[in-house]
Specification:
It is globular, with a radius of gyration of 13 Å. Helices cover 52% and strands 14% of the residues. It has a two-stranded parallel sheet. With 85 residues, the protein is an alpha+beta fold. It is built from four helices and two strands.
Length: 85
């Protein structure tokens, strides 16, 4: 079974933190986030899942949230990533 995982580019990290409505729920640095991302990806693989890295375009994420009337928070980011097939 495949599962989509949001992947944020290091170059986009500060812009991401500035634009989201829940920056306190994110890691302080991209490096910290990436280490956790790799752990989750490895755990999913060892549990039999096929994780798909979905590279997030921040402008598209924002447009998605505006179109749906959503705050740019964890729930909306998950919904956005799950919309990819």
């Amino acid at each position: 079974m495949s599962l989509n995982l949001a992947y944020y580019r290091k170059s986009d990290w500060s812009k991401l933190i500035e634009m989201i409505d829940d920056p306190e729920k994110m890691h302080d640095t991209w490096e910290e986030w990436y280490q956790d991302f790799l752990k989750v990806e490895k755990q999913l693989k060892s549990s039999g899942f096929l994780p798909n890295r979905i590279e997030i375009d921040l402008d598209e994420l924002k447009a998605f949230c505006v179109q749906k009337g959503l705050k740019i928070d964890g729930k909306a980011r998950s919904l956005y990533v799950s919309s990819f097939q």
